[in-house]
Amino acid sequence: MILRDNRELETENDSDCDDMPELEDDGVKYLTRLPLARLPLFSPCPPGTPGPRLQGIPSFVNNEVRLLKHDNSIVREDHLDRRWEEATGEVVDEVIFLSRHTAVSNRPALTIHPIGVPHLQEGDVLPAGGKPGWAAPPNPRIGPWLRLLKGIAESHNLTPEFEVTLEATHHGPKLTHPQCFVEIGSTEEYWKRQDAAQAIALLVWEGLGLGGRASAVGDWRR
Which residue ranges does the record annotate as region Disordered (predicted)? Predict the structure, then answer.
């Protein structure tokens, strides 16, 4: 889950990282899929340190970014943004999911897409979460990040083996804030490719302007 920076907000909590709360675990077992949350710059923790837990989901802090690592099907993680806000008091502004992509073609791919199932009607079966006739607000980073991802894939010699593509929206979860999915596909062989994972990591690093090396990509407020 990724959220944008609301710099006007400040924290009243001056506790150190070891005192950050662990929220109640609801017993759900989670998989290694990574939603990111970008939040206000009020954390006293240095980058990369552990953050609060959300119903058993661990998080990590890098300035205003929150990285959540969990083991559940993220297409059914409805209201993850609101749940984070309610549990931590931090204001979510945008959400980016890092996930695995599957396709009948089994073709290696790096994909970006918004979420929602506006093509389904009430009463239709929801094969992958969401709400019939609904789509979440798309993240404005989608276009700029797709162009950035293409450049990264080319520079890392992933193309033409990997197709870099913009997918149509086709699954959940239900969220309130602007969001998108960034995925590696399309089979287990490619999910394990370290060069593909490195490309996605670089996309997030450069796209969010982490490390102070460059400005964020696709942030319409800047």
Answer: 1-22
> How far apart, in whole angstroms, are the C-alpha atoms of residue 113 and residue 120?
18
Question: For the chain, which residues make up each domain, given as ranges?
Answer: 17-212
Sign of the torsion angle spanned by Cα atoms 22, 28, 30, 36: negative
The length of the chain, given as a count of residues: 222
The number of beta carbons lying within 10 Å of the beta carbon of residue 13 is 12
Residue 101 has pLDDT above 90, yes or no: no
Considering only 92-101, 120-129, 189-198, which range has the smallest mean pLDDT? Answer: 120-129
Say how far apart CA 61 and CA 118 lie, in whole Å. 34
Q: Considering the domain 17-212, what is its CATH architecture?
A: 3-Layer(aba) Sandwich (3.40)
Residue 178 to residue 157: CA distance in whole angstroms: 31
pTM (2 decimals)? 0.75
Closest CA to 153 of 178, 180, 181, 182: 182
Give the model confidence (pLDDT) of 170-216 as tens digits.
786 888 899 999 999 989 999 999 999 999 999 999 999 886 666 88
Q: Cβ(117)–Cβ(131) under 8 Å? A: yes
CA-based Rg of the chain, rounded to a whole angstrom? 17
Q: Which helix (H) or strand (E) holds 205?
A: helix 194-207
| Phi-psi label, residue 200: left if phi above 0, alpha if psi -120 to 50, beta otherwise | alpha
Q: Is 7 exposed, middle or buried (0-12, 13-18, 19+ CB in 10 A)?
A: exposed
